[in-house]
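Quick one, tokens below. Sequence please?
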């Protein structure tokens, strides 16, 4: 077991709010360990860790269990998980069908609209009240990460990998 797993620690982020103030985010250490187990990106390749596939599955589980503060999703966005790990895995390991299936599921979950993430089990009145109150900052933070994800998908290697996967799917059906 990892020392300190399950505990949280504070990290002063480099992200700045619109007013220029820095924000403090509580980091889930277990999530940090899982993200570290994925592997690492080199400009010309992505080197998967030994536990890459189980770690990807764990990330999906984390997202399923997150509460309406979206702290898990925000921590993944802050860590640039999609840009540094998930897309590179998709780009460089497109021949591993099981890996691509799990990565695709994670991509779909990570890129879900913020409205869906924040309003899972609430009435319309509760939704409006939460967005109007403390959740607005967190909501806008998720929107910022979603915009960064869109930009990451414009990478030529990412578009080529997506086209290759779509081509494989179409060939299987045809």
């Amino acid at each position: 077991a990892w020392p300190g797993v399950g505990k949280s620690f504070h990290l002063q982020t480099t992200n700045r709010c619109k007013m220029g103030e820095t924000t403090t985010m509580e980091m889930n250490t277990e999530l940090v360990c899982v993200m570290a187990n994925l592997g690492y990106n080199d400009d010309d390749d992505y080197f998967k860790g030994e536990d890459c596939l189980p770690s990807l599955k764990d990330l999906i589980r984390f997202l399923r269990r997150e509460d309406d503060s979206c702290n898990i999703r925000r921590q993944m966005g802050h860590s640039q998980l999609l840009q540094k790990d998930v897309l590179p895995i998709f780009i460089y390991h497109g021949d591993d069908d099981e890996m691509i299936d799990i990565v695709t599921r994670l991509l779909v979950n990570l890129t879900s609209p913020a409205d869906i993430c924040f309003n899972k089990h609430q009435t319309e009145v509760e939704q409006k009240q939460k967005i109007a109150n403390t959740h607005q900052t967190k909501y806008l933070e998720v929107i910022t990460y979603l915009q960064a994800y869109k930009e990451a998908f414009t990478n030529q290697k990412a578009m080529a990998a997506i086209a290759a996967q779509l081509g494989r799917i179409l060939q299987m059906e045809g």
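Strands lie at 8-16, 22-28, 39-42, 45-48. Confidence is low (pLDDT under 50) at residues 1-24.
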